[in-house]
């Protein structure tokens, strides 16, 4: 394994000059830097980041924070997370950065794991894959010094320094989803969610409400559990009984849309009786029956952009505005034009 | 943030004694170690692992290697990977270890990313989430010094030092799956795979072949692409035309089972015309139509066990036999008893 001395020798400079060139010091001419870079490439030199970490007090690693899930399965269930991680990874790979994961079954466990990343791993760049109101984990990270943080999700605190947001315009996406159904002829449209504290869901609901209000229609939210299928059936049946004439559902994501299809099936109701639209445009839309209309939010691009923002921060240390990744409705069978 | 000096002061020992106690030195009595441990807990002391990494030349991080996938989506599609990662994470969390990910769209990219983990991150403990014959990435890792490696998958090279295997008994699982269908009355049973170089699939196929041979039945493998749905339809149609009387499919995993259901639907064939059985018992089994019988292979436990083995290695540095996680067939609607 080549050392900085080997690099210096090949480049015909002193070890300290080579080291300065490596760290892009303004004391070194561009020509010398280029010579050192070429020698590094030729020798396949890789700086010892552990040593640099000690000096810089930060590591070339991005920490990714997954949302807390009680159940072992629910994260795996949502392809969104693996796709966004792959987007982050590809950018890290290009920049010789590493990716570390923090997850937990409780807020406490997740906080402890992030603490390990920050304190033991010297990780100073963190991406939150969720945005949740009053989240104690995020509050903890915000209090730490010298952390650059990108939140994939809605900015509920615009003012924080060192924190950037990468997101879809979820209000607009919710509005577009409801507009789409209204244009298809539906009037009694329900929003189905799991947790309104998750800002993605709250924002989509807000957009949905805007659309319905503009069309002088009444909106209603149905909250279902991610796990308890027994209670879910009762909630759905109660809703249908109390509000006769329901025609369509905007589901907070594809998983919820599939859950609705399954609940209808269990209740002996044809899935064709209700239009359903989801979000994420994940692969499950294709296996849904009927195939699911869904709003694509481009998670891979979200991940790429989040990592890109974070690595830019590392260089510029400036604050930039929230980055918005566009969305697009992908129409399938679950939202036919309503026959009048 | 507490330092080792603070810990030493509270424990009433010298800093060097506290440090030795922290590293479990045999020079220090158990009573003193206990006092130091209590002081550490009280002060919430966390050793600076970057400094330790430099000394130990290895970090308190487990590197997880994901299989190469050309498409951005296919990893996210398989809930198996996120579940196994969560199992690894939970054990790492308990042991104050961190988790890093290496992924790539090509072998070259993946190799480069692992190189960064080993050379720059000083990571010496690696878990491969797949086992693939002649894999250049695994060959690269094997050549590195002082790497402890756990492969989640079949051991195709039994002799390697420093490499352990955690797996299901996939031959037995394949045999059990075929036995199950045969006991239900099926005789013409096809195995559906994507890539026989992946040892999980090859082993399940081997077990399937054993079962069919024991019952004097003929086995046949159908290879379908993970992506190309047009070619898949043609392959499936050709198979059904060439081998009339096909009754059932053992799919290499749940995703493949769902793919078959979808292909049948596209071809206008009722999914009820063929029995289908998958592997992984992932959540998609429930939304499949009909609901899918599947072999549960307990990925969370696989992840827990893989991380456990690796951390044990770190202490014992001995070689232990492959660990086998039991499997279980979960029966649903897709494999009814065949009416004679």
Automatic annotation (TrEMBL), chains A, B:
The keyword Cytoplasm does not apply. Residues 2-56 form the HTH lacI-type domain. It comes from the Bacteria. Keywords: DNA-binding, Transcription, Transcription regulation. One of its GO terms (molecular function) is transcription cis-regulatory region binding. CDD domains: HTH_LacI, PBP1_MalR-like. SMART domains: HTH_LACI. The keyword Transcription applies. PANTHER family: HTH-TYPE TRANSCRIPTIONAL REGULATOR GALS (PTHR30146:SF109), LACI-RELATED TRANSCRIPTIONAL REPRESSOR (PTHR30146). This is LacI family transcriptional regulator.
